[in-house]
TrEMBL record:
Pfam families: Plug, TonB_dep_Rec_b-barrel. This is Iron complex outermembrane receptor protein. Residues 283-701 form the TonB-dependent receptor-like beta-barrel domain. It comes from the Bacteria. Belongs to the TonB-dependent receptor family. It is found in: Cell outer membrane. Residues 53-160 form the TonB-dependent receptor plug domain.
Amino acid sequence: MNRLLVSVSAGALATLFSTMAVAPATAQQAQPDRATTVDDVIVTAQRREQAAQDVGIALSVLSGESLTQQGVTNVNQLQNATPNLEVEPAFGGGAAQFRMRGVGFQDYASNNSPTVGVYVNEVAYPVPVMTQGLIFDIDRVEVLRGPQGTLYGRNTTGGAISFVTKRPTEELSAGLMTEWGSHDLFRGEGYVSGPLASGLRGRLAVSTEQGGAWQRNRTTGESLGDADRTGARALLAWDPSETLSFLLDVHGGIDKSENQGLYLLSDLRTRGGAGPLIPADKDHSKTGWGISPRFAASIGRAPNAKPGRDNSSWGTSLNANLALKGMNLTSITSYETLERSEYGDWDSSASVEADTFFGSDVDVISQELRLASDNDSPLTWVAGFYYSKQDLNERYFSDFIDIYGTYAQVTYDQTVESWSLFGQAEYAFTDKLKAILGLRYEEETRELQGFGSAFGGATALPPTSVETKMTPLTGKAALEFKPTDNLLIYGSASRGAKSGGFTTYNTGDRSGIQPFNPEILWAYEVGFKADPSRAFQLNGAAYYYDYSDQQVLSAVWGQNGPVGRFANVPSSHIWGAELEAVLKPIQGLRISQSLSYKKGEYDEYEAMDVPASRLAGHAVYVDMAGDPILFPAWSYSGSISYDWTVSGFAVTAETNYSYRDEYPSWLGVKYDVPDYWLANASVTVGPENANWSVTFWARNLFDQEYDLTRNFFTSADIAQPGRPRTIGARLSLQY
């Protein structure tokens, strides 16, 4: 098959989008649905197929086509399309920090569990860095807000993001998508699907993303930020009988991308003030990096290496389903592995003041067994068993040679073993009233083995092993009431738990690696899902979260003074609300909107005042009761699409946009991330009865300058900027 490409001049695209910015629209296929009704969306959020409007859970659903239109190729980018979700990239690297409804965990290390569970085809990715692969060949993604544990293998406090890939088809089909954009960005995706033998179907999908670097070294002019990642997935679906089916999923990926560059928020006085001064970057496309020969040799990089990664991953899962009398038995067996090698320059300069390296080998095996009812009884239920084992071998190196005259090496292994029993039952008292009860019991042991640190080659902390265990009982109770066919009102109380863990940063003190406790979250929620007319859909939810032992980054007093470590806040709370609406007022026009607000506060928390403690020579604490929990308060997103026909051609114009409120930082005002708006737009054209279409698109249409994160490391105040405006074209073919 020949590769088909489309090119278009930047000037023509800019002119086109400037004239259409006021009347665009969400993605439609070459033959759009012209009905003035909001389509039912089928989800499996509760482990069975249901219309999303019949599920008493706050959830958002995005189709694979919508992800393509918005340029979403990574889980982090979902934050611009989903209410109350933020995904913060740590220091421009591959570690993702998830936060949903304000429930999050700020950690750039690899060893601790996230507050938001990420699943692909029902398989959990419990180590955050494992979630950073390419997103492709997706049927839909379901984003569930609030604790999830009575129906899912993993226990979470924030929520779950569940990707469902497209399945093998009964008939032979194939597709190809090629996309070109600014800064030599190229993306390609293709698949072939169909029958292989009687009862056997297969699907093979591949995707690649290349180029796109838009930042330059402020001294040499070299570019930084090119993508170089490729993924593949093969699915085999086998139905040996009417009651037995299997789905085998084999997938893998390679990521040799350069890291996103950082820019300097403030003047950097290199080498502790003894070296050249580098002025703050007013141009966010400027960045810098440099690596010492010793550090390059120790991490296996060239002396002129750019910040970047050399990661590889693969995995497989087998999903087996057996229909029994009045019930279904499901088994999901999986194995996932990741080899990570990532070099980052966190001082954004040629001076070697904060260079880092992560070498991670991760292996995860899991087994889930579920038994679920399958009948028309008022009682429906699901019960399950889940087992998981994680093995992590980690090397975390830091080079401070130009500022402190030393470098640090941290090495350790970590094993996490857990098993759980979970279940949920629903009973319909009448057609209008339903009660739901779910429970989960879990035992998890997390062991840090052989943790050792060295500074300048000298041992600072001999190999040490520590362990933490949790055995939480969590669950959910809910009521659903349908006074009319087009209105669902629900209320729920649920309890979720997040694992304890270890702070695995540079330390020469045993106090730094002592475990922090699990956090427990009681979530109370009321909501509604309404279809006042077939052309209008409105959903809303309000919630109150009661935290115990919330996990936050703080410090403890060690042998030689303050030691950075995650700590537990005895008591805190978060509350908020969200609205989502979809409207099809006239034929061809579709409007969707979402709005969310949240606020949090510490109820009981005494945190160490590090500067005061250093002066006093002992721990000094400050009472933070009544202080706010810091996260963006408001978020807003929406899309508008309109499709019509012209001389036998189907045309779709679309725009999608989002607003992210200011993100205050506990580090100080300098590190507050300002609020920002983003807008994208596209036009898709193709023959009404043909199998191809061409799309012209612009992302960050108004060239908004914004930051994704701000922080500091040693002497450097840095920020990671978001991408500037990019424009391009996409050709899609279906056979």
